[in-house]
Predict the 3D structure of the following.
Amino acid sequence: MPASYAYLGPEGTFTEVALRTLPEAATRELIPYVSVQSALDAVRAGEAEAAFVPIENSVEGGITTTLDELVAGAPLMIYREVLLSITFALLVRPGTQLSDIKTVSAHPAAQPQVRNWLKNNLPDVHWESAASNADAARLVQEGQYDAAFAGEFAAARYGLRALETGIHDAENAQTRFVLVGRPARPAAPSGADKTSVVLWQRDDHPGGLRDLLGEFATRGINLMLLQSRPTGAGIGNYCFCIDAEGHITDRRVAEALMGLKRICREVRFLGSYPRADKEREDLLAPLPGTSDEEFMAASDWVARCQDGRF
Ligand SMILES: O=C(O)C(=O)Cc1ccccc1
């Protein structure tokens, strides 16, 4: 049996399209799961080598199911990310006209991306959330709903017709997907990497979040994501999901994580992996004083001082 990747299914999701852009997907069996949780649980149970799931979109922010699983479920790690531009088609059964549509369905993350279009074109329609956009298409095929927002490519798979295409309230809307596996050594740095962590503060004090962010700022590390998620322990209790520039083997990143480990109640490392938005050539040089060489020279100097050899 070839190693398999679980993904948010059924067939015809944006997730599947994004997954197929990864070269390694060509050598794996790709297995659709009904939810993000079930795909991630398949990895935890050892049924799948990795799972591919949406984690963030540029219109609405984090996909909370995925974040919460990575924050609170049995530990998993991110190994890859993919960015996909998203534009929706309105899929219907052949013969359906716009004026026939009373119910429409899609993944909850799709709604903020088509809200204005709906207001202008189908103001009285009833919205029903589905487990994924392709699942909404499947439910239209079964006759449960009149229309689904999904990728145009899902139409053929579910015997549907695209009544409208190119639907998107925001230009350049993108969704970010991640390949998640069981914890193991991260891939070697690619030169343009990202490190994801979850932080729990030790106590509640003024400037607490600034203290966490300061560990990155003083080492010249840019952040790409900061999302608070409730811990479930009551109003006002949050943990912070952070994506930071760099790889855990970069000295400045390792030192920032050491700083956070000292001041946080808990730090969960979610992985260091190549970033999908930039290549090595696009990156700016590290800020003065934050390169690996400068960290190493400073640490050698301290060692010499400790030895009385400065
Ligand atoms: O992959 C899909 O089709 C999904 O249902 C997740 C999703 C939701 C909204 C935009 C992109 C992906």
